[in-house]
Write a structure and sequence with these properties.
The protein has 291 residues and is of the alpha/beta class. It is built from ten helices and eight strands. Strands 3-1-2-4-5-6-7-8 form an eight-stranded mixed sheet. The radius of gyration is 18 Å and the shape is globular.
């Protein structure tokens, strides 16, 4: 993690996790970022222009949310209700903290030396960053003006909200394809698959590099046909650089309980190494780089 002052950061780079996401030592919350205090009319105006966003937390990690050491910013709000969500506390924007784009960009600027040394950059995650497209657009533009590598981690469900200007300011998209079969996708997320497929194709046509992420959940997303559908889709996109098969884990379970939310996968075990290798092999069979 980093220090909250403006001096040289003390960095705990964290470690990778074999799971539905990656190992994190705990986000920095909103430490070091100003809590913008606006009355309601001004706040709404600031949100519309992208000057103000809703922030859940941030952290500095390596080899997790894109290349190099990255400042990963978790924005609040998500339209999906994934059964295995490991950050259910990010689902509602009201749980976030107001933060201005300028203040967040100050944080980005502070770590430019780290980014340059490691080939890292800024990753906007969530929640779902495209719940706040104007804020995302402003932050990405500011980061690119500083020469910082930019990434968003998204389900793609709200891809229609991403303007061409946003795509122009993206170096990489971590696209979470949660299922290849529409019925399974609906079971996992409560939403439709098609918007994600459409967004991935748009990214490919626009020349934006992608890492496809697929969470492997036994008895939910692990069927041969479901994986084949995701693999076929990934192979059809010209700009997919790699596929990450992320084995399901139970690390978010306590958060569900603390929020008083029913966790339907409490009896689901992580996939076996044999199942993980089978699924990775399905992607490799199409010539994809798989992690």
């Amino acid at each position: 993690m980093s220090s909250a002052n403006d001096g040289a950061p003390v960095v705990d780079l964290g470690t990778p996790l074999v799971g539905g996401s990656t190992q994190r030592t705990g986000g920095q919350g909103t430490q070091g970022l100003e809590n913008a205090d606006f009355d309601r009319p001004e706040r709404l105006a600031q949100v519309r222009t992208g000057e103000l966003g809703s922030l859940h937390s941030w952290e500095l990690v390596t080899a997790v949310d894109g290349p190099g050491t990255r400042l990963t910013v978790f924005l609040a709000g998500c339209p999906l209700r994934c059964l295995y969500c490991h950050n259910p506390d990010t689902l509602e924007m009201r749980r976030g903290t107001d933060i201005t784009a300028d203040e967040l960009l100050k944080k980005v600027k502070r770590y430019r030396g780290v980014f340059t040394a490691t080939g890292g950059g800024l990753t906007l995650s969530g929640g779902e960053p495209l719940m706040q497209p104007a804020f995302v657009a402003r932050v990405l533009r500011g980061a690119k003006e500083m020469g910082v590598h930019t990434t968003i981690d998204t389900s793609g469900f709200l891809g229609a909200a991403a303007t061409d200007a946003i795509l122009d300011d993206l170096d990489l998209v971590l696209l979470d394809v949660k299922s290849g079969i529409p019925d399974t996708y609906s079971r996992v997320t409560g939403r439709e698959l098609q918007p994600t497929l459409d967004f991935g194709r748009r990214l490919s046509d626009h020349g934006v590099a992608m890492w496809i992420r697929f969470v492997l959940v036994p008895d939910l997303t692990d069927s041969w046909d479901n994986v084949e559908a995701v693999a076929d889709y990934a192979a059809s996109l010209a700009t997919v650089a790699r596929v990450e098969v992320l084995p399901f884990h139970q690390m978010g379970r306590d958060k569900w309980e603390s929020l008083g939310m029913k966790y339907e996968l409490e009896d689901t075990r992580p996939p076996t190494p044999e199942l993980v290798e089978r699924v990775r092999g399905q992607f490799r069979a199409r010539g994809l780089e798989v992690h």
